[in-house]
Write a structure and sequence with these properties.
CATH topology: Peroxisomal Thiolase, Chain A, domain 1
Order of helices and strands: EEEHHHEHHHEHEEEH
Strand content: 15-25%
Helix content: 25-40%
Distance between the termini: 24 Å
CATH class: Alpha Beta
Largest sheet: 8 strands, mixed
Structural class: alpha+beta
Length: 221
């Protein structure tokens, strides 16, 4: 079974690229929150619930949104055979800390339901799945690095078990103003196109490195 990368999207340091081509650049120095809102508006996204999400979910949601822009994957793949498999390092730590601050003092105990709902990293994948009506595999695993081998193994297993025919996979990391994502749309190779990129660890690593031009490569590859 041969798998290919049909499309990929990278977000990092105010830049958004699709298949290696720049599609958006934000020059402001006022942090992640302003960047992600500006990018949301730039891509004319219409999803009011976005503004209620935690920052990790906003990054994951917009990464999937841009990756799938112009695609109608549910015309090509059943919803139950389309999945999302993501990894990151910080889990939902940023919102976990906010939630902890609201409950640590029993005399000032005011937990926020809007924070609590995002204290699991898989909610990030769930938000994207709801938006695009994806009903297949939905997984977020925590790993210290962007690990091409791990992503490859997880996705390959899902395809070999015949649970998926299309998978959105990759890395979505965010904590305060440090953020990056790299998502791939992976399918079975049915067209044998010379333009397709084979889904294998070395190609995942090479794409990641090309999107980290300042040399701060956070990968074991």
């Amino acid at each position: 079974m041969s798998l290919v990368i049909r499309k990929y999207c990278a977000i990092r340091d105010g830049r958004i690229r699709v298949d290696g081509e720049a599609v958006f650049s934000y020059e402001g120095q006022d942090g992640f929150k302003k960047f992600i809102r500006t990018a949301y508006k730039h891509f004319q996204t219409d999803y009011p619930k976005f503004f209620k999400m935690d920052n990790l979910s906003k990054l994951g949601f917009l990464s999937v949104e841009i990756l799938l822009k112009g695609e109608d994957i549910l015309k090509l793949h059943p919803a139950e055979k389309t999945g999302i498999i993501l990894t990151n390092a910080s889990s939902s730590l940023e919102i976990d800390e906010k939630h902890f601050e609201s409950i640590k003092d029993r005399g000032q105990y005011f937990p926020s339901p809007s924070n609590f709902v995002y204290t699991l990293p898989n909610i990030m994948a769930g938000e994207a799945a709801i938006r695009h009506k994806i009903k297949g595999e939905n997984t977020v695993l925590i790993n210290k690095y962007f690990d091409p081998e791990l992503i490859f193994i997880l996705v390959e297993l899902a395809f070999k078990s015949k649970s998926l025919s299309c998978c959105i996979c990759g890395w979505v990391e965010q904590y305060e103003n440090n953020y990056e994502s790299l998502l791939f749309m992976v399918e079975k190779d049915n067209n044998n196109s010379a333009e397709d990129i084979i889904f294998e660890p070395s190609n995942l690593a090479n794409i990641y490195k090309r999107n980290n031009e300042d040399g701060r490569i956070n990968t074991k590859a």
